[in-house]
């Protein structure tokens, strides 16, 4: 503690990150299991695994004359990874925004655990249990990675301003557990070594992972990932698929918007396809792959077939 | 390496050196500095002194008063990122409350000065809610314009409401108790020393409390709102509630400094609360570095001290500060010291455990990490 290291890159005396680098494969697996346990949500979810967790009913979203979503309906079962795909401008992100309270749907309903989200404010939707990441990364750039994740955990905290001012016992308890959980989450998504760096200085791939960790910190019932693999190379995509599976195995339900067909086919349990704001197909990956409407939407239809 | 790089590197290693010190050592460094600050009016150092032009202890009180204002405004502007151009309004409310309850010119009941201070803070907090609740749905420039209007409204009310006595003002505003050896009041308007000691003590208490807020979900909510309000809301931050709190807490500190100002001057009228004063407050925050507590103290020192030290140029102070700000915005848009905050109560232990090194603080990247980012 007394020796000021030459630079931030060399940890002065070990720490968890240095320990991790020296672990054997077995120790590493054990450590990962421990981390996964801390990360796992302790939420009471009203529906059983396999039943519908989130239901979207006739969701319509109009902006002036433009209909971005046209009575789209689908459901997500608890424990599933659902892929939401479609060409550019199909309405995928609009669907996310309507679900998470960024937009107010023109008509239609979103039900979480059978209860409508209605006109809840954005932060209340998060507290009800939907967390998301953003297509264009939106981290709190001036905070460290660890602080970013702790902001996510704050969604579940109840310390009042007065409590924080005088440092009430609840404040201390929440601060301690928040850091515990945030450190485990950074470890879980694999970026613990940069916990102390400002978010804006992190490499691109780390930023994408940090967004996932921050969203998981809010203890969601449903995690929505908006193109998490955008700009990734094949190796990074492979790692991301592993992470998404790991998240599902840890007890989360995942809704995934993605362009990369290989990734979507490889990781999802079911797929919903949108085109021009309408749902054109839904099913398991193999069905979607062979669905002529989907193929046409992605590859276009030959001119002579149009007649 | 350019000179900026070297300087940034030095600053960084200084802060890193500080963060790697253990707590007792930090105290051992801090306590003598604080004692030195307390002793300034008595020491009256030859280079620093403003005499014979201006009484030095009173000049130091002015500096301390600006420092307190800058800390309060920094919560609103620096932490929560809400541009408030009417902060002088809160300052005025505090000063008028102190005058109304202590001056013989007012028809209200007379109360002891120290009892009036919490009342002044409470009333300014109410004003904070009144201003904040309808306006904090606005953002950026729109919010700035509304707050500018608020500052003007308060001033015009002071001008035009009969019981507030306009230009005539209130004489003999109260002061804290205590007498000198010869029986005269300890807190009077010719001796700045007791006022200075009182204000510095208030500043230390306020800094500690604000520090508590900063290292809690409240401070994190403010910085999250400043960085990306929509993302903050989607991460579960009650953005509106915490914005109003930022306003209210900033207002309370403004009211506190207003009451102290009224007490020291022993006179309040409508002349000291114009928009230009508000701009001067804001200049202190921006100049020093909004979002950096040490920075805003430095900014307050510059803004309050320089015109008193160099009375010859005091007339041109707005011109000079204007130029200084323009130059600063070109070369160091983040202010003399960039934004910097500790947001975790147990951050020190956490980073220690994770990385085996001292506490990290998030600070403005332009201080150095962007330039050195590649190396990391």
Number of helices of chain B: 15
Mean pLDDT of chain B: 86
How many beta-strand elements of chain B?
Answer: 2
Task: Please bin the fraction of helical residues of chain A.
Answer: 40-55%
Overall pLDDT score of chain A: 87
Beginning-to-end CA distance, first to last residue of chain A = 76 Å
Rounded Rg of chain A = 21 Å
Percentage of residues in strands of chain A: 15-25%
- Please outline the major beta sheet of chain B: 2 strands, antiparallel
Shape of chain A: globular
Oligomer: heterodimer
| Largest sheet, strands/sense/barrel of chain A | 6 strands, mixed
Q: Which stretches of chain B of 5+ consecutive residues score pLDDT under 50? A: 1-5, 363-376
Percent helix of chain B = 55-70%
Mind explaining what this structure looks like?
The complex is a heterodimer of chains A (307) and B (376). In chain A, a hairpin with a 2-residue loop joins strand 9 and strand 10 (278-283). In chain A, helix 5 (145-154) crosses helix 7 (169-189). A six-stranded mixed beta sheet of chain A has the order 6-7-8-3-9-10, sandwiched between helices. In chain A, strands 2-1-4-5 form a four-stranded antiparallel beta sheet, covered by helices on one side. The model of chain A is unreliable at 1-12 (pLDDT under 50). By secondary structure, chain A is of the alpha/beta class. Chain A has helices spanning 16-22, 25-39, 92-99, 122-128, 145-154, 161-166, 169-189, 204-217, 234-249, 261-267, 285-290, 292-299, 303-306, and strands at 52-63, 66-77, 81-85, 107-112, 115-116, 130-132, 222-226, 253-257, 270-275, 278-283. The termini of chain A are far apart. By secondary structure, chain B is mostly helical. Chain B is 66% helix and 1% strand. Chain B has helices at residues 3-20, 23-43, 56-79, 87-102, 113-135, 140-160, 193-214, 217-227, 229-234, 239-265, 275-288, 293-309, 317-331, 347-355, 369-372, and strands spanning 340-341, 362-363. A two-stranded antiparallel sheet of chain B has the order 1-2. In chain B, helix 11 (275-288) crosses helix 12 (293-309). Chain B starts with a helix and ends with a helix. The model of chain B is unreliable at 1-5 and 363-376 (pLDDT under 50). Chains A and B meet through helix 1, helix 4, helix 5, helix 6 and helix 7 of A and helix 1, helix 7, helix 8, helix 9 and helix 10 of B.
